[in-house]
Amino acid sequence: MSCKGKVVCVKPGESSLGLKQDKIYTELDRYTSNMGEEVIEVLEAMPPSPYRGYRATRFRPATSADMDKVKEKEEISI
Fold it and tell me: What is the mean pLDDT of residues 14-31?
């Protein structure tokens, strides 16, 4: 499975979902569920069973500004 890009969590929901507000995630797959909802699977988190992914409305596409923030944090911690 290849990565489709980066997304930022904007609606993490309850803590049992395993998502964090404003965290950047790697999108692995995107599809429409049996219920007709757009779903995203991410590399860094796994929803509780029996679900495979999260509603796409919980995320927005990552921007270059988001990615710059990550680079700044990496440079500071080195």
Answer: 95
Q: How many CA atoms lie within 13 A of 78 on its CB side?
A: 6
Q: Does residue 51 carry a pLDDT above 80?
A: yes
> Tokens 């499975």 sit at which residue?
1
Element (H, E) at 65: helix 64-77
What's the burial of 45, exposed, middle or buried (CB within 10 Å: 0-12/13-18/19+)?
A: middle
CA distance 76 to 12: 27
Residue (of 22, 26, 20) closest to 7 by Cα position: 26
Single pTM value for the model: 0.84
